[in-house]
Amino acid sequence: MALADRIDGLLHEPTQVHDGGVDLTAAAVSRVTVPARVDFGGGELTGADREPVETRLRNPDDDYGWWNLDAGTYLVEYNESLSGDGEVLLQTRDAVRERGAFHPTLRTTSLDPVPFVVGGAGLLLKENARLSTVSLP
């Protein structure tokens, strides 16, 4: 099974699927408002409270809005999901990294929200922007 066949929810396959893998798009951005807890045994493990970062339209007739992200750490959710067996390698797209933002590189079997770090003066991120690339390890 080709990698692209394992990705559900592609917005525009001709743009997202390429020789280097499959690009994933940003569906939602949230910020942590109440910290999570992580302990040794897991008995006190709790999730963090999050709130969505709202988008703004640059022009009233735009179809998609922009997230205005200040420097900091966020959680990003993807439009796409992963099916089938086996790990994929999830990496920040060069275009994003070169603009001062990144997420950790992960070997994963699911496309759960990932921590997304924005540096410097911040980042304007458009809804459905191609943020990450998955490839076979």
What does this structure look like?
It is a single chain. The chain is mostly beta strands. The chain has one domain (3-135): Distorted Sandwich (Deoxyuridine 5'-Triphosphate Nucleotidohydrolase, Chain A), CATH 2.70.40.10. Helices cover 6% and strands 44% of the residues. It contains two helices and 13 strands. The strands form three sheets. Strands 2, 3, 4, 6, 8, 9, 10, 11 and 13 form a nine-stranded antiparallel β-sheet that branches. Strands 1-7 form a two-stranded antiparallel ribbon. Strand 2 and strand 3 form a beta hairpin. The protein is globular. The two termini are 15 Å apart. The mean pLDDT is 97.
Any descriptors?
two-stranded antiparallel ribbon, 2 helices, Deoxyuridine 5'-Triphosphate Nucleotidohydrolase, Chain A, about 5% helix, about 140 residues, mainly beta, nine-stranded antiparallel beta sheet, globular, single chain
